[in-house]
Amino acid sequence: MKIRSAELNIVCGYTSPLPETVFPEIAFAGRSNVGKSSLINVLMQRKRLARVGETPGKTRTINYYQVDALLSIPVSELPGDADPAETGKVQMKEQGEVFHLVDLPGYGYANVSLDEKAKWGSMVERYLKSSRNIRAVFLLVDIRHEPNANDRQMYDWIMASGYQPIIIATKSDKVKRSQIQKQMKVLREGLKAPKGTVVIPFSAQSGSGREEICKKIGEILSEKQ
Ligand SMILES: Nc1nc2c(ncn2[C@@H]2O[C@H](COP(=O)(O)OP(=O)(O)O)[C@@H](O)[C@H]2O)c(=O)[nH]1
Ligand SMILES: [Mg+2]
């Protein structure tokens, strides 16, 4: 995925109506401090598009980044009768796409009043239930820890809204390579995610996992509606 441009173009407050949007949306959810802003910056190849290390719980908005990207997508029909499965070569083509990357407000910060939590919940639920353009929801969880009650609730909300979340296991540089598979299993089981749920380990520090996430986004955006 080559990013041609990316900019924050809509900031929606907790109690504001959701914006009328036209582009397909790829949403990102996760606990405060899980590494969501860092992931957005790495995906967009920008150092400070999203603010990293903000006071947890401070972001009380849904942020829409408008992205113009060149996606590499597989060409399903090759000219002639060459079968890509037989030749082992899948032909790719580049296609321009404009989409919204949607940064949902983080959760799980202790110093937040019940009133704030309720507002957060109703906003996120409103977004998941009423946005017409959502094409995929990514849920970020820290690779080091078993998902907690908040993560499970978020996961269940996403499922209940009709989406099968793609899990990103963040901060993969913090565990030994040999532990990655095991931790992915811990996450999958902790969220009670069905077999086949995609879990992608990611490190904002090394950029490892970026390719796979970009490929997934490319597939999602090129799927016929
Ligand atoms: N080691 C490591 N630290 C990370 C990674 N991603 C984020 N962090 C750190 O975790 C903290 C929170 O990151 P941020 O992106 O602001 O998280 P957000 O609250 O989910 O948006 C910051 O101090 C980041 O530098 C990562 O992949 N590896
Ligand atoms: Mg953030």
Structural description of this entry:
With 225 residues, this protein is α/β, with parallel strands linked by helices. The chain has a single domain, classed as Rossmann fold. Helices cover 29% and strands 27% of the residues. The chain has 6 helices and 7 strands; from the N terminus they run ββαβαβαβαβαβα. It has helices spanning 36-44, 84-87, 114-130, 149-160, 180-190, 210-222, and strands at residues 2-13, 25-30, 61-74, 92-103, 134-142, 166-170, 199-201. A 7-stranded mixed sheet has the order 1-3-4-2-5-6-7, sandwiched between helices. Helix 4 links the parallel strand 5 and strand 6. It is globular, with a radius of gyration of 18 Å. The model has no long low-confidence stretch (mean pLDDT 90). Bound molecules: guanosine-5'-diphosphate and magnesium ion.
Secondary structure: number of strands: 7
Q: In percent, how much strand structure appears in the residues?
A: 25-35%
Class from helix and strand fractions:
alpha/beta
Q: What gap, in angstroms, lies between the N and C termini?
A: 21 Å
Order of helices and strands: EEHEHEHEHEHEH
Q: Count up the domains.
A: 1
Radius of gyration (Å)? 18 Å
Give the full name of the CATH homologous superfamily. Answer: P-loop containing nucleotide triphosphate hydrolases
